[in-house]
Structures are given as C-alpha cells and as structure tokens.
Amino acid sequence: SGGDSLSQLDVAIRKLAMEHVQSSAELTDATRIALQSIASEMEAIVSASEKGHELDLQRLEEGLGQILACKPRNSTTDAVANTTTARMAAHETCRVREQALNATRRAKCDSYARTLANATPPSWENVVPAPET
Questions:
Q1: Which of 54, 84, 98, 112 is the most buried (most CB within 10 A)?
Q2: Quick check: pTM over 0.90?
Q3: What is the predicted pLDDT for the residue at 93?
Q4: Are 125 and 119 in contact (CB under 8 A)?
Q5: Taken in order 125, 131, 132, 133, is the CA torsion positive or negative?
Q6: How far apart are alpha carbons 27 and 106 in whole angstroms?
C-alpha cells in the first residue's frame, strides 16, 4: 500500500544518506536527480494536502453558517401542529361520546325488546314496531 511504499522509500533514503556521510564519494547525477524528483513530488503532495484541508475547513464553515442561520422553529408550523393536536383531541372526545351514546342506545333497545317479549297481549309486538339496532 501507499504507506508501506513511503516507509520503504524513507528507509532507502536514510540508508543512502548514511552511506554518503560515511564515504567521501559524491552523489551520482542519477541519484541527485532522483532525490530532487522525490523532494518535488513530496512538495506537491504537501501542497495538495494543504489545499484539501483549506477546502474542507471552508465547507465546514459554510455548513456551520447554514446551521446558525436556520430558525429553530417556524411559528406557522407550530400553529398548524397546535391546531392538529387540538383537532385530534376533539375527535377523540367525540369518539368517546359516540361510544357512550351507542351503549345507551343499545341498552334502551334491549329494554324495549324485553318489554315487547313480556307484553300482554302477545300481539303487542305487531302493533308497535321495534326501533332498528
């Protein structure tokens, strides 16, 4: 990988430097050109990294600006939410009342049916129709 290559390059350059220091030999032109090329490439890598870092910081600052400019709540949204909540509560109250009225209606119908069943004369059921349930 890239990290291994750089590590190997670092070891090779350090070895070359130690050999050069320990000997009185001059660097060959090929070695000098290779070292200059490596230095140039490393400067390009550092420069690109710095530019990338600056761009990342700029994007972070833009994002922070957008977050800070955002209003925490919208009063229109709050009003709609409150209205919806109130309507839901009213609907629930209505449903509970409807269930109570339905239970009362069933109780009255059951009572009416019992009255008809026990009526005298038995033909009473034919005279007064039972309410629909």
A1: 112
A2: no
A3: 93
A4: yes
A5: negative
A6: 109
Residue with tokens 């009213």: 90
Q: By the 8 A CB rule, do 59 and 51 touch?
A: no
For every residue of 64-105, DSSP letters joined together read HHHHHHS-S--HHHHHHHHHHHHHHHHHHHHHHHHHHHHHHH
Give the tens place of pLDDT for each residue, 26-63: 878 888 888 888 888 889 988 999 999 999 999 999 99
Cβ(99)–Cβ(117) below 8 Å: no
Quickly tell me which residue has 């349930």 as its tokens.
133
Cα–Cα distances (Å) from 98 to 14, 94, 128, in that order, read 90, 6, 27
Structure tokens belonging to residue 16: 């070359």
Structure tokens at 129: 């129709």
Task: Give the Cα separation of 69 and 62 in Å (integer).
Answer: 10
109/5 Cα distance (integer angstroms): 92
On the question of a cis peptide bond just before residue 121, with omega within 30 degrees of 0, the verdict is yes
